[in-house]
TrEMBL record:
The chain crosses the membrane at residues 112-132, 144-163, 169-188, 200-219, 225-248, 269-288, 355-374, 386-407, 413-432, 441-459. It comes from the Eukaryota. This is dolichyl-phosphate-mannose--protein mannosyltransferase. The keyword Transmembrane applies. InterPro entries: O-mannosyl-transferase_TMTC, TMTC_DUF1736, TPR-like_helical_dom_sf, TPR_rpt. It is found in: Endoplasmic reticulum; Membrane. It comes from Chrysochloris asiatica (Cape golden mole). TPR repeats lie at residues 482-515, 516-549, 584-617, 655-688. Pathway: Protein modification; protein glycosylation.
Amino acid sequence: MAELDTDLDPIIPASVLPTFWAKSVVGIISLVCFSRSYDGDFVFDDSEAIVNNKDLQAETPLGDLWHHDFWGSKLSSNTSHKSYRPLTVLTFRINYYLSGGFHPVGFHMVNILLHSGISVLMVDVFSVLFGGLQYTSKGRRLHLAPRASLLAALLFAVHPVHTECVAGVVGRADLLCALFFSLSFLGYCKAFRESSKEGMHSSTFWVLLSILLGAAAMLCKEQGITVLGLNAVFDILVIGKLNILEIIQKILQKDKSLEHLVVLRNGGLLFRMALLTLGAAVMLYVRWKIMGTGPPAFTEVDNPASFADSVLVRAINYNYYYALNAWLLLCPWWLCFDWSMGCIPLIKSVSDWRMIAPAALWLCLIGLICQALCSEDSHKRRILTLGLGFLVIPFLPASNLFFRVGFVVAERVLYLPSIGYCMLLTFGFGTLSKHTKRKKLIAAFILGIVFINMLRCMVRSSEWRSEEQLFRSALSVCPLNAKVHYNVGKNLADNGNQTAAIRYYREAVRLNPKYVHAMNNLGNILKERNELQEAEELLSLAVQIQPDFAAAWMNLGIVQNSLKRFEAAEHSYRTAIKHRRKYPDCYYNLGRLYADLNRHMDALNAWRNATVLKPQHSLAWNNMIILLDNTGIVNDKKESEALFLKAIKANPKAASYHGNLAVLYHRWGHLDLAKKHYEISLQLDPAAPGTKENYGLLKRKLEQLQKKGI
């Protein structure tokens, strides 16, 4: 039994130590923590990644998933975020198919079960990390640290920082990545068996399988590639038994015996390192080629520190962000769905009191690193080094060190690093137990942490069940975050409370005077309330700040049209279409402008464009039908009939379409067809204006014809 397990002996009862019972306890507790989110809505990013993502629907070929980003956009597009996660999107598509549509319960249940399964796997992962690799004569791995692995897995299962990944459906990317990450690590461990004569030897098959599982993790989320680095660290430290301190000392002393180190002459180790390096290089090369146009372009509001002119300011703020991430792991009480847009103001001077945070972080890290390097206890060195490795290495893609990321702090990226944190925390509890006689007090303290974290998970999961609760929960955590106020306002507007929405939109613009989306939405509400002058000012400012903001240009055109400034409105609509060529709503509004100006052919062409781009655009079809009916622009009966039939095909339950087509058939003398469509129209809408009267006229005419024997 590992020394750490002996230290935890008085704290964890032996009754839960058998592997089956330990995994059962972890699995059940993890389910309890996040079960309240099972019937939640699609919230926040779920709308774009799932509800509005055409890659989930059967009409989209499966092959497109390998050419689109996580949000359904083409990777070759300049506006793509380059987040390439086709395996995650594939699971969303399967969910959509099995659920028969966008029913969130099935999506949430998969996330909850995934986290539970990963937590159970963590028992094995921590067993290897704490107890090392030893096998029976039959090749079965011995669980040498059952108490430490159980405690660490419990701490992982109940950590509240995981709520975003579990309760938010888009967090499945992190969950699937963690699943394949864990399988890759455990697969790599299977590459070693103990033989009494030969010692440890490797299996190339398991190494290659581990690399393939690492690639699968990367296809779920970019962090997945870091498992190859951790496999290498584990191989060197645990299998190769490399003593870093010894090597450093020999380098400093220019000791010639360095070249005779066993680890450097181990052909099996070098071969495995070569395979891991080659695998990582291939994965990175393919990933870069797939990105097409290079890295994504983020804005200053997404990550303000990365846009700072001073290298010192950037470095200080990056380290402050690291400290905040560490604090979220240590004290996950203040959680927020978004940490951008002023939530964390920049540190611009070393005299800022917040400099205490990165200083404290580095003091702790330096202390742990010194212990990991200099401790005479090889077991302690190994645990601390592996714990730091699992904490730091998976976090590197989010660190801004290699490339700019599109966020300040994101709780979801801590899912994998929390493995290292839970390992270090468990080691700390073991050390504390070793040096104190109050074992029961420590046991109560640990139990209290697990219980409090469980409660926090349940409360936070409940907040993620609806956008209203989620957005309002952020107001107390990030009151300076313009996006929080924007999302609260948007939610209020969607629910019909425009007065309250205006207040939050104004606050969002006050906090971030360049927040064009808040200006656009506020301008829309003011337009609907007929406050046209202020609406025009806001929308004009929005397009001045962001000239390619197509939605703001269109809304500006609507306001200008209402103000009878037709020439300016036409220019705004045309500019919107210039920046977004496939914009059916803008073509529809352009058609309305032409109709007001009696430019009937231009109106008809604009509405036709709208219906070509969006065949279900009922307003465009309606207006086109009314225009044709009133003006008789199209004299060809077959062309008119074809147009109406297209409209009905696009929206078969539109009573007005059937009613208008029936009128045309009535005029043309196709009385049976007219009767059919009148009846369909009345069946769909018994109160359809004019249809009942026209149907009555048709019936009287049919009766007269019947009496005449025609």
